[in-house]
Design goal:
eight-stranded mixed beta sheet; seven-stranded mixed beta sheet; 660 residues; alpha+beta
């Protein structure tokens, strides 16, 4: 395979680079700055191309590509600046003293343990100066007795609050997660609102919403086993709101959670299901255009029925471009349609690049395209059924090979039996879809719906039993793993150079693979050395409880008092996984009335105030507070009457401070 045959791979890569560097170097610049730079760069490129002379060919071959790729980077930054709501002077970020606001709900209500959540678009606010125009999205939590439909207009009393940053290092940063969706505010309103207008939706959206609700009711009616109905709704309709935690955990442990998220796998099954019967690739060109146009319409109808989630949009866009390419050629390359679909989605919303689903889906597809043929060629079983199982296994292995660095980075776990679970999950999902799609189409005919519903029920039960069996196996999942970004990119570089070595067999590629292995090994040694030399004490912010970790000479000592399990899992454990390791010795603590004495293993003694957890003696230590995703040195003596809003780190001047 020659990569110069797939220009959109390069175009998309440089465009994404511009989006990624925008927050670091361009968020303080106005969009028109990027526009002028882009126009100037484009004009210079066109002028040089027009003035091309053969005697300057070598210089042109260096300068023109450089200008083109630079323009793509600037284009990525310009697109990101246009979607960056902080650039809008009327945004809620720039409005203060809000007493009430008008908002439109854009989604259907989602039930949470103690309230109902919906996303509201604000278009006006009331301050001391009266009503004024404003823009922004607010995550609204309410307790309305009746559902609030999309399109409902509300007047909400009070002011939305900025989403709080993470309180502890390495904990999940919900503020950043929502900010990348351009959502900066939330508001717990209870029943403190006035409904001005009930939801009025476009007729096509109302029809799709009603159809989706009807099909969900049909699934519940004819698929009587509760677990089977939950899986069927997730697979066929993208409805995971009723999915039990135990079922989700079983699929995650088996490495089969991807079959429950309606995405490229499911849209691909619909695509393949249609191709199985109509075979447009064998038809004449005009017939191929008609059939593939119908395929595109059916794909987007299915995407709308499943809620138009980002993963479904990505898959629908990708298969749309593949279909358009097949209208021209019977066997088009998939690389350009894949890259073009990503490019167009990012032009619409450049911050999709930060979505985990976006990263995993496109990485998995690239892994399948590059590595599945290589893995498949390692064995050629004679029996047809063995060949089918090997094809499925090779697809799963290729996808896992490409995505495991990202999976470990985000989820810190690796499913041990993914190779075997995919033999159950992927054919099982295809079987459920093959039975479920006709069931959905014919669910209004009671006799046929009863017959097909029973078969969907049996097939889903069988798949569930297979998945649950992997959860019961020993060492079903390896936990507490971690890669950081440099390691991820080094691993991907190693995989890419290994691919080139296998396909092109050049000596230079051997050297490149060895170089990456050397860099990866050196980086790991450096990280280990850094961890051994850590010496600090960390007091986590976990409500009323006390959680303290002390790191000394590569060993972790800890005391945990009055901390519930969820706080430990989400506030304490992430830092241990990424920084210190999870195995901890006991840190001796003594109750001294208003003080807590910590007996440190190196002989030091440290007294903390019970009320604020601040150290009593601050002269022989350095004190840091976790604020806005970074450590900040407390230069003046700390005299707060309440515990700090974030974690607190104490270092000692007589030892190297590795995290200052």
């Amino acid at each position: 395979m020659r990569f110069n045959e797939f220009p959109f791979l390069r175009y998309t890569a440089f465009f994404i680079l511009g989006v990624l560097i925008y927050p670091s170097i361009g968020s303080d610049l106005r969009p028109y700055v990027f526009l002028w730079v882009l126009l100037a760069g484009t004009a210079l490129y066109l002028a040089l191309a027009f003035l091309y002379r053969p005697k300057f060919r070598r210089r042109y071959l260096q300068l023109l590509p450089f200008l083109a790729y630079t323009n793509l980077v600037v284009m990525g930054m310009y697109t990101a600046s246009l979607r960056d709501v902080s650039q809008d002077p009327t945004h809620l970020l720039h409005v203060s003293g809000i007493q009430a606001y008008l908002a439109v709900f854009r989604e259907t209500d989602q039930q949470k343990p103690n309230s109902v959540v919906n996303l509201a678009d604000v278009y006006a606010v009331r301050t001391a100066d009266g009503w004024q125009e404003a823009r922004g999205k607010v995550q609204v939590y309410h307790r309305s007795s009746t559902p609030l439909l999309p399109g409902s207009v509300l007047m909400i009393q009070g002011s939305p609050e900025r989403i709080a940053p993470a309180k502890n290092p390495e904990a999940f940063d919900y503020e950043t997660f929502m900010a990348r969706k351009q959502i900066y505010f939330s508001h717990f309103i209870g029943a403190n609102f006035q409904l001005l207008q009930t939801g009025s939706l476009a007729s096509w959206y109302t029809g799709i919403l009603r159809l989706s609700q009807h099909l969900e009711q049909q699934v519940e009616r004819y698929i009587r086993d509760d677990a089977s109905a939950q899986i069927a709704k997730a697979l066929l309709l993208g409805q995971k709101k009723d999915l039990d935690e135990e079922i989700g955990a079983a699929y995650a442990t088996a490495g089969a959670m991807h079959v429950l998220a309606v995405s490229g796998l499911h849209v691909g099954m619909v695509y393949g299901f249609i191709f199985l019967f109509f075979k447009p690739h064998r038809a004449a060109r005009y017939q191929r255009v008609v059939l593939l146009s119908a395929v595109v319409l059916l794909i987007w109808l299915y995407a709308a029925l499943t809620g138009l989630s980002p993963s479904v949009l990505r898959a629908a866009a990708m298969f749309t471009f593949i279909s358009l390419a097949q209208m021209k050629s019977r066997n088009p390359s998939i690389f350009n349609p894949l890259a073009l679909s990503a490019m167009l989605l990012l032009l619409y919303d450049p911050f999709l690049v930060y979505a985990v689903g976006f990263q995993l889906s496109y990485t998995a597809l690239l892994g399948i395209l590059l590595f599945q043929p290589i893995i498949r060629s390692l064995w050629n079983p004679g029996a047809r059924w063995l060949s089918y199982l090997w094809d499925i296994s090779s697809v799963g292995m290729a996808a896992q090979l490409a995505t495991f660095p990202l999976s470990i980075y985000y989820f810190h776990a690796f499913p041990t039996y993914f190779f075997l679970s995919n033999l159950v999950a992927i054919p099982g999902a295809f079987l459920i879809m093959a039975l479920g799609l006709p069931f959905l189409l014919l669910s209004s005919l009671p006799a046929i719906a009863e017959f097909l519903g029973e078969w969907v029920n049996r097939a889903t039960w069988l798949v569930n039993e297979g998945i649950f069996s992997f959860q019961r196996l020993p060492f079903a999942k390896i936990d507490f793993l971690h890669f950081n970004l440099p390691q991820i990119f080094l691993i991907w570089m190693g995989l890419f150079f290994s691919y080139l070595l296998i396909t092109r067999r050049k000596k230079s590629h051997v050297y490149l693979v060895l170089l990456v292995l050397f860099l990866l090994g050196g980086y790991r040694i450096g990280q280990t050395w850094k961890k051994i030399n850590q010496h600090y004490l960390l007091v986590y912010r976990v409500g009323q409880g006390l959680a303290v970790d002390y790191t000394f000479r590569g060993q972790l000592y800890s005391t945990i008092v009055g901390v519930d399990e969820s706080d430990f899992t989400y506030q304490v454990l992430p830092h241990r996984i990424k920084r210190t390791g999870t195995r901890a010795g006991n840190l001796l603590t003594l109750d001294r009335g208003k003080l807590i004495r910590l007996e440190l293993p190196d002989g030091k003694k440290l007294d903390l105030e019970k009320r604020t957890f601040r150290p009593v003696d601050s002269e022989h230590i350095r004190l840091y507070f976790w604020q806005a995703g970074a450590w900040h040195l407390q230069k003046a003596p700390y005299s707060g009457l309440l515990p700090p809003q974030g974690a607190m780190k104490i270092t000692f001047p007589d030892s190297p401070d590795m995290f200052r």
